[in-house]
Structures are given as structure tokens and as C-alpha cells.
Amino acid sequence: MTLNSLRWLGTATGIIGAVLVALNIEETRYGFFFFLVSAILYSYTSWKDRDYPMLALQGTFACIDLLGIWRWFF
After folding, report:
1. Is the CB of residue 38 less than 8 Å from the CB of residue 11?
2. If you write DSSP's letter for every residue of 39-57 in order, what string do you get?
3. What is the DSSP letter of 1?
4. How far apart are CA 69 and CA 33, in angstroms?
5. What is the pTM of this model?
6. Is the separation of the CB atoms in 41 and 6 below 8 Å?
7. For residues 10 and 35, what is the distance between their CA atoms, to the nearest angstrom?
């Protein structure tokens, strides 16, 4: 996959995660998995582009997503 394709996939998974969380339904908790996938994809593309501020942001988001998964599932 190209970096551009990965960015679009990261965008799509981020949007899905946001919609799930905003709906505040039972499936809301799965939004954190979509957010995590998005953060991982954007972390990878940021690393490849040497965009270190974005990498720091997405790394932070990934940690927050893991916290959300922990809180909702365990």
C-alpha cells in the first residue's frame, strides 16, 4: 500500500471511531479500536515522512486509545 492509501485508511477509521463515540450507543466502545488503528496508520506515515510533531501527536492518541480500550473492556 502507498503512504497516501494508508493516510486515507487512517482517515476513514478515525471518522468511523468518531461516529461510534458520538452516537453513545452500546457499540461506542469499539470506536477506540478504530481510533487506535487510525493512530497507528498515521504514526507510521508520519514516521516515514519524518513529520515528528505529527508522530508525537499520533503516538499520544494511540496511548489514549489504549487507555479507552482498557477502561471500556477490562
Report:
1. yes
2. HHHHHHHHHHHT-HHHHHH
3. -
4. 7
5. 0.94
6. yes
7. 9
